[in-house]
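Sequence only, no structure available. Ideas?
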Amino acid sequence: MLLRLGLPALVAVVQLWPFLARDDSYHWWGCAVVIASAVPLLWRREAPLAALAASLVATGLYDLGGDVPAQPVWYGGIVALHAVAAHSGRRARAVALVGSVGGTLALVGSSETALRTVVLFAAAYGLGRATAASEERAARLERERLVEAERAAERERARIARDMHDILSHAVSVMVVQAEAGPVVLRADPARAEAAFDAIAAAGRDAMVQLRGILAVLKSDDGPHAPQPTIDDLPGLADQVRNAGLDVGFTGSGEPLALRPDVAVAAYRITQEALTNVVKHAGAARVDVRLDWQDDSLMISITDDGRGGAPRGGGHGLIGVHERAAACGGTASAGPRADRSGFQVLVRLPA
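Reply:
I predicted one. Tokens follow.
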């Protein structure tokens, strides 16, 4: 608002100054023309071409007043032409440039004044086009920023959905297996039944801790949050599945390398999902988890001796495995073993 009102006022004051500084140069006609050339600038953004035309018409009437100070009164037209160049279409800009330069040249007398007029109007037009380009670039960058923010939010929602799926699917699978086994062994082996119920409680508590961490992130971006599980937590994950009655082998080879935080989390979640599928669908007696550290990558294989088929009905588990690996720049494959004696998930993650 300050610039909107201040610029026309500045133009009027500068062009009124010869009248205000010298009493003998006072002339009401000249003052009226100067003010008339500045007032249209108030609408230079809404109607730039009309503002330019009104300002130039008023400027052309200046010398009709007789004894007026000899001064340039094209400041209003220069500002209006800048607005046309910045805010109008191509046709309006062409009409404005030709009309303002041509009309002014027709009114001026000397070649020196004509040259100065052309230079000033051309400079105003060029600055207006530069302003338009800058505004368009800023608007484009803002649109791109908003699109990228939306994409980032979508990626984050997808990541949270995968995390919640993995947490709940794993915990519920372990709890269901233990709950089904508990009553069977309750009378024959009370100690084993007690262990089954302890495993149910442990799986539930672990799931609650991880879900609280995710919900804390959803509620607020401030303050400390529970750390995401990483590859260092895989032995504990293997113990959970082992408590569900499945024989779990956990081995590694090579020299461990540093992993990016997202890769470390992905390694845990992928292994968690693969083990959950074994518990829910494979009917296996044993599953082997192997970490193979190579020069620039980590290979993870989860192999079971079950039925050798993928989960019936599709589901999101194996899709999540592929998506997590791809999001980290890795690859994943899953399918029956060559001898049809089980199922294998093989993942490569960059180190």
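The chain has two domains: 2-107, 146-350.
Hope that gets you unstuck.
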